[in-house]
Each structure stands twice: as C-alpha cells, then as structure tokens.
Amino acid sequence: MPTTGVPGAVAPAPADAPAAAPADLSGLTATPTGAFSPEAARKDVPILHRTVNGHPLVWLDNGATTQKPRQVIEAVSAYYSAANSNIHRGAHTMAREATELYEAGRNAVAQFLGAPSPDTIMFVRGTTEAINLVAQSWGRAHLGPGDDILVPVLEHHSDIVPWQLIAEETRARVVPVPLTPDGEIDQAAYADLLSARTQMVVVSQASNVLGTVPPVREMTALAHRYGAKVLVDGAQAVAHMPVDVQELGADFYAFSGHKLFAPTGIGALYATPEAMAEMRPWQGGGNMIESVSFERTTFAAMPHMMEAGTGHISGVVGLLAAIDWLRGFDQNAVAAYEQQLMTYAMQAMATVPDVEVIGSAAERIAVLTFTMAGHDPASIADWLDRDGIAVRAGHHCAQPALAHYGLESAARASFALYNTSDEVDQLVASLRRLGQSGQSGQPGQGAPAQQA
C-alpha cells in the first residue's frame, strides 16, 4: 500500500475515481514538542488528575499497565468517528484509510524497535500471545526429544508456561537458569547450561518483579554460538529504554501495547526474516491466506500469515499514537530520569522501618518490589489505596523469582516517566503511617492479591 509519509493520510484515489469528502483524521496522531520533563508528560495523561478515596491519584502500578495520554485516547476516538472499516480486503475509501493507518502502525513499530523492515512485525494481542505464537509456530516445528529450552528463574509466567506446554507435546525440556542472591541471572550457570541441545533461550529485557536488566546482547551472542534461537520479552523494557532489536541480536522480540501507554489487547512480535522462514501457521482463517479450496490452501506471505482474522485495528491506531507520543520525548532523557527517580525511591524506602526491597541488581528499571514485616502484601496495597496510591500485590506472575527469596507474595511499586519524587514521598509517608498504625495486616485482610 503506498504511503504519504504522514500517519493517517491515505493514498490518492485513481484519477477517474469520483470525488469523496475526506475523513478528518487530524486527531489520530499528535506528538508533544519540547524537552522531556515528567510534568510535561503528566499534562497529557487525563487519569493522573483524578482523585481516589479523596486523594490525588498516585499511579505506581505501571508494571501492570500504563496510563494513556490524551493523544492515544483521541486517536482511537477519531478512528471510530471518522475511519472505522475493516482492512486489506476492501476497495472503498474508508477501507483504504483504515488499511493505511494499520500499516502505518506496523511501520512505526518497526522504527521504534530498530527492525530492518515493517515486514518483520506481526501484530498480536500482547506479549503473552506473541510468546505462545512462537512456541506453537516455531517450537512445534523445531523441538523434539532431548532438546532444551533455557528460561531463567527470573521470568514471568508467560515466558515459562507456553514452553512447558510445547515441551510436553514435543518431549523437549524446559531448563531453569538460576539467579544470584542480588536477583541477576547467574551468567556462569547460563554458560554451563548452554549446549548443542539448546534450541531456544527465553529472557526478559527487564524483569517485572525485580526490575533486573540482564545483559541480553551478550546472552544472545553466546546462545547463537550453539545455534540456539533467542526470544526476548520486552514487555517491561519498551517504556523505559531505547530498544534496537538488531543490536540485541534477538531472533524474536515481543511487547504489549498497554505497557507502552497504548490500549489493551494490542502488541507486536518482531522476528528476523530467517526465523520467520522457519515458522508455520498457528491460527487459520481469513487474512492469512492466499487462496483456499477444499483440495488445497496456500498462505499469505509473512507477516500476514500470522495474523488470522480481523486485527485489532483501533488498537494499532492507539499504538501508533502512543509511539508517536513517546518518541516526542528524548528517550535517553526519559531513561536517565527514571534511573534518578529509582535511586531516590530506593534511598527513601530504606528509611521506612521494617521495609525490605527485594533484589539489588546493578542494572534495573524503576521497579521496587518489597515486603513489610508484620504486614501482608495485600493489606499493604489496601492501606496505600486509602491514600490514593496504587501499587500491586501478590506473586506478580513470577512465582519462581519470588520463591528464590523464600516468598510467595510481595508488594510492588513500579514507575514511569510521568511519576515524580513527590509521589515517592507520598508512598513513603503512607508506609510510615502504616508502620505506626498498629494494624497487623494478616493474610485475608484488605484487598485481594493482584497478580499481573
């Protein structure tokens, strides 16, 4: 599909086509201007200006989902108001407009990830579906008895369970890579576990529970020496640091839009052309075929072969707007600010009696998972919620990582570019009041544990 170079614009109609009133798509993309500051980001995010339980909202649950800037909200609304149509299969004006937006989103994702071509990007519902897609499409075709899939103990359940399912089917093995006491992947153990049997390594670029940022590029290069593929889970990384999949050397890279200030239900999977050539259809239906008869079906070229049915078109529009919004800020400045905020938060949390932050990796994103002696994590979250402070509590879909510290659950404060040191101060002050309150906070009291 030809592009005009402006997301949301449409290709010109043939000269003999009847004139049509153009849709107003001006609200579909908008990029902030000026240098980065958390205050500038906050101004764009409406929900950050609401109150919860009579207090201004302090959103410290960004590891579960990020809040959406008005540019994303307006883009989705403008799409449904002016350009709603199915894509790829229609010859009318609105179908062309919707298709143009959808493919502009694919192009934006490719640029955002440093991918060599939009044709290396597949749209999915999120990181979980992307990992399942790789396990079912690539894994079923390539794994067999005696093959190893290396997965660090650090990982989210979405990096573990899909591979357990395919390993059971193919008689391969999921091999855990241990952690060091500070919450880093044990690189010596990883090197020892790699062998000619290793077919896949699955690793997060940033941990959702400890914030650990492993040396992914080095781990990938080492895996490739053994002929193994590497899938990088970028769900927690993309909102916090610049990503270049070619520099990382990843064979696959997955992320979720809702953790990148975009809508829920949309995400993307990058794969190298070589890896794509080894993938087989996973889901069948419309859009992923070239021709169908009862005698034989031929499939569309990649990436469309992996996108059966109608895609989440409005989700792609929102993802496009979110990437435009985020790229309007200097990504290195964002990363530096978040590191400063994390350092401030670590120092502030250290002053709260009975609070222990879990993990102390040298490289980490702004995620603070913690316990407080005498208080169940769910009760901690309930107490903070009374002060308008949103944190997560539970096992965070990372039970092996918590078990490494002898824990079944913990509380977690996770930060984004729109959080401030004042919000850290409010978190610390509320925890101090909890410690002084005399409440026991035993399991079963307060809010139910939250797991994402």
From TrEMBL:
Low complexity: compositionally biased ranges: 1-24
Transferase listed as a keyword: yes
GO process annotations (BP): cysteine metabolic process
Catalytic activity entry: (sulfur carrier)-H + L-cysteine = (sulfur carrier)-SH + L-alanine
Record domain Aminotransferase class V: where: 58-427
InterPro entries: Aminotrans_V_dom, Cys_dSase_SufS, PyrdxlP-dep_Trfase, PyrdxlP-dep_Trfase_major, PyrdxlP-dep_Trfase_small
Cofactor: pyridoxal 5'-phosphate
CDD domains: SufS_like
Record's keyword annotation contains Lipoprotein: no
Gene Ontology MF: a single term: pyridoxal phosphate binding
EC code(s) of this entry: 2.8.1.7
Keywords: Pyridoxal phosphate, Transferase
Region (Disordered): 1-37
Assigned protein family: Belongs to the class-V pyridoxal-phosphate-dependent aminotransferase family. Csd subfamily.
Protein name: cysteine desulfurase
Lineage: Bacteria, Bacillati, Actinomycetota, Actinomycetes, Kitasatosporales
